[in-house]
Write a structure and sequence with these properties.
- The protein has eleven helices and 14 strands.
- It is an alpha/beta fold.
- The chain folds into two domains: about 15-230, Aspartate Aminotransferase, domain 2, CATH 3.40.640; about 235-360, Aspartate Aminotransferase, domain 1 (Alpha-Beta Complex), CATH 3.90.1150.
- The strands form four sheets. It has a seven-stranded mixed β-sheet with strand order 3-9-8-7-6-4-5, with helices on both faces. Strands 10-11-14 form a three-stranded antiparallel β-sheet.
- Strand 6 (about 120-125), helix 5 (about 140-145) and strand 7 (about 150-155) form a beta-alpha-beta unit.
- Helix 9 (about 285-295) crosses helix 11.
- The chain binds pyridoxal-5'-phosphate.
- Its cofactor is pyridoxal 5'-phosphate.
């Protein structure tokens, strides 16, 4: 007989056995759908607390597990902080990093990667799409170029997961980061894809969960929610991405038409469907953001605010868009619920504010 542990949510006798079984089934179902969504095997998906942890696990995991072979890794100057700050920390404990410089549109190339790798390079990490300026990197090309080289390839796909069909084999990646909240799932849960057979040191040591790659009892409710979000994403992704792309181009076109001097940051064509990022010369960034906020338009400055002063972000600095010290940079992101009416309204408001705030 199973041990009696009270009643479950339906008033039925619950047991350790059935509770464990339910959790395992929920984890299995979520793992299967996440694996399917990126063309991976069930066993290659490791659940964790989100994109930040997945990036940390990839960088620490591969560099530490392969340290005897070499202490060099390659990444780019425009990665998310979850990669960049981890890379900087790895440098403080004896690793050597090369940070590839993007071109003015935020692109890095496969030949830059090939030039940077050495016999001691164990990892290359290049994000799929940039979260600030929206530039989409040629990951499949880089993956193809790295084939045959003795180095592992990681990509942070947090920004692209909900908008492009991803396949780890076509991309040629050994590790891939995804996060639930960017696909309308719960916050605080994500996954790292690790190709079977890749030596990786776990970030968390303890129990044997996630095939000994991430110790600690899984957050079953969050993971089940993640699985459900992936299921819905697979149904809606194509339609949503098309709508966002159309609205993005509408917004970009209207801003260019109405606001002289507005300069689009990021790649003109290879950019995320929902990303619009402009620089406005001669506009005070803080005043623009505050005024937009007061009108109900939620925008991001595309800059890092530190103790009252707005500094250009590391991304804008890397693409050379930070030199207009007297300008404002603005990121507007579209979602699946954005309407054409909201786009037109935003352009009206923005045009009015820019005219008012233009320094003479
Ligand atoms: N990587 C990129 C490109 C992101 O945009 C984000 C967050 O927005 C992260 C990593 C961090 O993911 P999380 O918030 O799930 O920790």
């Amino acid at each position: 007989m199973e041990p009696f542990l009270g009643r479950d949510g339906f008033g039925n006798p619950s047991s350790l056995h059935s509770e464990g079984q339910r959790a395992k089934r929920a984890l299995d179902e979520a793992r299967a759908v996440v694996a399917e969504s990126i063309g991976a095997q069930f066993s290659e998906i490791n659940f964790n607390s989100g994109g930040t942890e997945a990036d940390n696990a990839a960088l620490f995991g591969v560099t530490l597990a392969n340290r005897r072979r070499g202490e060099h890794f390659v990444t780019t100057q425009i990665e998310h902080e979850a990669v960049l700050h981890t890379a900087r920390f790895l440098e403080t404990i004896g690793f050597e990093a090369t940070y590839l410089a993007p071109d003015a549109q935020g692109l890095v190339t496969a030949s830059q990667v090939l030039e940077a790798i050495r016999t001691t390079t164990t990892l290359v990490s290049v994000m799929h799409a940039n979260n600030e300026i929206g530039t989409v990197q040629p990951i499949a090309e880089i993956g193809g170029a790295l084939r045959g080289h003795n180095t592992y390839f990681h990509s942070d796909a947090v920004q692209t997961y909900g908008v492009y069909p991803l396949n780890v084999h076509e991309l040629g990646v050994d590790l891939l980061t995804v996060s639930a909240h960017k696909i309308y799932g719960p916050k605080g849960v994500g996954a790292l894809y690790v190709r079977d057979g890749i030596p990786i040191e776990p970030l968390l040591h303890g129990g044997g969960q996630e095939r000994e790659r991430r110790a600690g009892t899984e957050n079953v409710a969050a993971i089940a929610g993640f699985g459900e979000a992936v299921r819905l994403m697979l149904i809606e992704r194509e339609t949503t991405a098309k709508q966002m792309e159309r609205q993005r181009d509408l917004l970009i076109g209207m801003i260019r038409e109405r606001i002289p001097g507005a300069a689009l940051n990021g790649h003109q064509a290879q950019r995320l469907p929902g990303n619009v990022h402009f620089s406005f010369p001669d506009i005070d960034a803080e005043s623009l953001l505050v005024s937009l906020d007061l009108t109900g338009v939620a925008a991001s400055s595309g800059s890092a605010c530190t103790a009252g002063s707005i500094e250009p972000s590391h991304v804008l600095t890397a693409i050379g868009a930070a030199s207009e010290a007297r300008g404002a940079a603005l990121r507007l992101t579209l979602g699946r619920e954005t309407t054409d009416e909201e786009i037109r309204e935003t352009v009206e408001i923005l045009t009015r504010l820019i005219t008012r705030l233009t320094r003479v």
